[in-house]
Amino acid sequence: MQEDSIIEAKQARSQQTQKKLLAALSDSLTTQFFEHISIAHITEQAGVSVGTFYRRFKNKETLLPYLYQDFSEQFKDWVSALEGNKQGSLSDQIALLVTECNAFLHAHAGVLRTLHLNSRLYPEILTKSQLFERSHDYQQLAALLMTYSTEISHSKPKIACEMAIFMLISNLIEKVLYSELTPAIASPLSEEENQQELTLVLQNYLQSPQA
Amino acid sequence: MQEDSIIEAKQARSQQTQKKLLAALSDSLTTQFFEHISIAHITEQAGVSVGTFYRRFKNKETLLPYLYQDFSEQFKDWVSALEGNKQGSLSDQIALLVTECNAFLHAHAGVLRTLHLNSRLYPEILTKSQLFERSHDYQQLAALLMTYSTEISHSKPKIACEMAIFMLISNLIEKVLYSELTPAIASPLSEEENQQELTLVLQNYLQSPQA
Amino acid sequence: MQEDSIIEAKQARSQQTQKKLLAALSDSLTTQFFEHISIAHITEQAGVSVGTFYRRFKNKETLLPYLYQDFSEQFKDWVSALEGNKQGSLSDQIALLVTECNAFLHAHAGVLRTLHLNSRLYPEILTKSQLFERSHDYQQLAALLMTYSTEISHSKPKIACEMAIFMLISNLIEKVLYSELTPAIASPLSEEENQQELTLVLQNYLQSPQA
Amino acid sequence: MQEDSIIEAKQARSQQTQKKLLAALSDSLTTQFFEHISIAHITEQAGVSVGTFYRRFKNKETLLPYLYQDFSEQFKDWVSALEGNKQGSLSDQIALLVTECNAFLHAHAGVLRTLHLNSRLYPEILTKSQLFERSHDYQQLAALLMTYSTEISHSKPKIACEMAIFMLISNLIEKVLYSELTPAIASPLSEEENQQELTLVLQNYLQSPQA
DNA sequence: CATGAATGAGGATTCATTCAT
DNA sequence: AATGAATGAATCCTCATTCAT
User: Fold this and answer.
1) Are D99 and D194 in contact (CB under 8 A)?
2) Closest chain B C-alpha to A26 CA, distance in angstroms
3) Is the pTM of this model over 0.85?
4) What is the rounded (10 degree) CA torsion for D198, D200, D206, D211?
5) Across the interface, do B131 and A160 touch by the CB < 8 Å criterion?
6) Class of the D12-60 domain?
7) What nucleotide is nearest C61 when CA is compared to C1'?
8) pLDDT digits (tens, 9 = 90+) for A72-123
9) How far apart are CA C94 and CA B121, in angstroms?
10) Which fold does the domain A64-207 belong to in CATH?
11) What residues in D contact C160, CB-CB < 8 Å?
């Protein structure tokens, strides 16, 4: 019994360290690019020694899957929170979704930029199961819109809701994370104005009478 | 006279070297992270010495704008071609735009991936003037849509056209270059189906009666 | 009474741990350089924690004398066995010594290689008392030859016998353990032929009429 | 022509650096074991930067074959010198060989110890061709003795000469490099006395009347 | 006592940049 | 001008050792 609790204590300590390291990386990512962050810097931020880092991770890249996992959990939480905050109409729901998503991306800009870029350069950092999970999260968002299916004029509402989510995310990622770059510079709108227009785009897509 | 030709010869050689270096970087970028490509590797690939590299470029980052320039010219050509192929209606124009853009991105997927990602990792690689130029190209595309302004119901048609271009590009980049990743996995559509839906999204946005 | 048995049990456990650690080192030494074996590796192999290692040994080097001790005992046994098998003449005794020594080295090639090399890399691992003991063992072998002193023509028979033992061992170690390397490659003889010649060398040395 | 000389100059400089590094290692080996010498220490001794080391060698171990090559050349030189210093009798030749060999080993003790041990731990550092060369050198020493074949009583004089060389080397390596260890401790003789006895051993072996 | 997480000094290694040839 | 050898700061990484649990 005692031995068990000792082991648990050790594991807890170990978990604690891992969390500290991930948090340190997360923090650093708000001001620097992943590639420019040294392990010494991460460990200093985390208040642990470099050896401790290497006891847990093979190298800096090994952190990324964990970072992704962390982010995934926060994304899931965010999705759940949204589900608990249903709106009176599809239109309002879309507006809320846009606003909330914009805020969420802002809050996680550093981590997101790293994950977004690195997963494109090194697809192997994301496991199939992680992508599957993320896909499922998106489905939940689409399902949230589907609860207003009576308001949706599209002949294949599920397809349309998924497409809406895709456009929502791809637009906001570019606007929030890379506002000064292609393709965001195609539109001169401020972030707020962009949200309004994006809302409009999605509302029109889902609600307009179609051929 | 003779000196002139010597200088010309030297300039030609110089041009040649520059091209070789750009090609070497371009090649390397298809398999490796820009950050992980060493100057030694680039020069080796190009068959010149490191000293020669430094005679021509300040550092690795200085190479990217040249790469970008190449692509820019092709983009401009594509825009011009589109302008010479006006359609009978906004609806048709949007459909054509989506199809053509999808094809263009496909044709340049390799270098695009590089530029798209690396400009995000190293925003300083793109000069302000280059971004301005690109911005101008996008304006041209928006202007193309604006020629159908009578069909546009949006209260601020220019804003809407720009937004449409932004959404067009961000959607297609993700679908064409990173179909297996977030956020493209939010929608299960094939590339063709995605084009159809994207067309619909844009048409509805520009043409629908609005509040 | 009970306490005693607890202590005994603890001592037994302690002994057990020590043996496991020695065995782990011994195993590792057959494939790796002592210098390249980490304590973490030894303890992992032995199935104990690093802390336990440090409770029992000051450091890695402290382990080797124990390894040496094991071998020493077997060497002593072998010497004793030889003493109980006296021959009729010096000549025969030398022949037997060569044959038996060759066989003994063969039988212990693995651990010998370790000790032979590592004692050269880390002379401090062998205590003075261990070297003294080994020296004593060699004296016993020399003494064995000295029992035939009437047949020895050398003016300082004891010196000669000791020299003979030295040459016997150094020749056989090289031939048996490192037959493909310098200096064994100086002579193309098979192991059996080498034994014959070595016998001849020693016989001539001890028995020839000298100036 | 000029280009050629530039290249030659560069190569010469490069060679120079390599030599400095090898010399630095050689020097260090007289006071420290190979395993305990850091690359920083070697480069400091050589008066070059660490980067320079890595431009030429993958790591410390990569130096060993070069060290061996260096040593081999000196060994060959030593053999040649001996051949130019023929003695009046086999007896004198053996005496000279023992003395000279003892001196040679002394002069190269540091390097030799490293090569001797490391070639036993990592046989792959020596190529077959290098061993073949060394074998050839030993043959030359044996041939030197064979020039006195009329004085050799052994029925197979070539075999005997080779065996003599083998015993010469194995005895002296142990006595010169590892005098305090097994098996050298079997004999209490000083280095000089050991040389005398070794001379006696070899003389008796080659010259005694045999069965 | 045993455990194994944490430490951090020490050493290995890389690579952009300089500069003698 | 071109070359590529040399530089050394910056970073990575290991592992013996300690110590809280």
Assistant:
1) no
2) 17
3) no
4) -120
5) no
6) mainly alpha
7) F16
8) 999 999 999 999 999 999 999 999 999 999 999 999 999 999 898 888 877 7
9) 79
10) Tetracycline Repressor; domain 2 (1.10.357)
11) 197
